[in-house]
Amino acid sequence: MFTGLVTDVGTIRKAEDRNGLRRFEVACGYPVESIEMGASIMHAGVCLTVVDFGADGDGSWFAVEAVPETLSLTVLGDWKEGGQVNLEQSLKLGQELGGHFVFGHVDGVGEIVSVEPEGQSYRITIRPPADIAKYFAKKGSAAINGVSLTVAEALPNGDFQVAIIPHTWDVTTLRELQPGSRVNLEIDMLARYVARMIGVDAPTPHDAQGAKDG
Hints:
Elements: E1 8-18, E2 21-28, E3 40-43, E4 46-56, E5 59-66, H1 68-73, E6 84-89, E7 108-118, E8 121-127, E9 141-144, E10 147-154, E11 160-164, H2 166-171, E12 182-187, H3 189-197, H4 205-213
Antiparallel strand pairs: 1-2, 1-6, 2-5, 3-4, 3-6, 4-5, 7-8, 7-12, 8-11, 9-10, 9-12, 10-11
């Protein structure tokens, strides 16, 4: 479980394919004593498991592995050595929830339509996949590359907009976005349950029969 509040920006120092998996080594500012084998760390909105780690100067490094499905359904397949990535360690019992509940399960990859300055802040327009566009509502929450944001506007064509304050712009990788960039999107879990409760996502009789037969 995460909050969508980025606690560090890591640097990918190695990316290599091993036995059908892609292994990433990430350098970060986390103290080495704060990392454990098997711990969950969110990477640009994707929850991955630590499989190795060690000290790196005043910070640390750790390794995670991604299966082909994760690479194909998220932006992780685009990662290169030297790239930067938003990081968040998992929420611990008793910690303040400053963002919203984020699970690290990407629902789709969106495309940046525009990045427009608004005074000292920025307004970003994002085009989500058509099948999840209905979940982005004005004043609702969404995770963009692991960053918890409030939807500023939901447009008639299915696009939505978020406003980025200077602090968030400065301390996350959102500052690197430009038109055409791809981003990991996670729907607010509340929106998912509300849609199911009102029947928007209810299975059709055919789907229900298929599930029963399976």
